[in-house]
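Quick question, first post here. What does this chain look like in 3D?
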Amino acid sequence: MNRPLSIAELDHVVLRCRDINRALDFYVCLLGLQEERRIGAIGLVQLRAGRSMIDLIPASAGAARDDANLNVDHVCLGVEVAEISQAAAFLKAEGVEVIGEPAQRYGARGMGMSIYIRDPEGNVIELKQMPSGV
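> Answer (accepted):
Ran it through. Tokens below.
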């Protein structure tokens, strides 16, 4: 098959949030993402995550939310850190739920150490150590 397109990278992920300010505090203050822009009319906040974006939007009013209804299983962010266990210890000390232990996992840049955490909205975020020299 001769495809007219080739996927090059993850462009953005959109997360529905019950509390945008709490989510902003987590992603900006704790994880260090930069706010890039807002579209107030729809409540959208766009955060820069390296070459990709994480968009935060308000959850639908009155919408029930439980693990069976999530639209996203998890989002993986490449992180620059000497030891992923240091990141896990820091996040635990900040009250972030760290799920399991650091482990080798496969992703866009091959095998690498990663951890899973849960953001304030209950979304699972994988933090994957970037290969050195990238």
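The CA atoms of residues 80 and 133 lie 10 Å apart.
The chain has one domain: 12-60+73-129.
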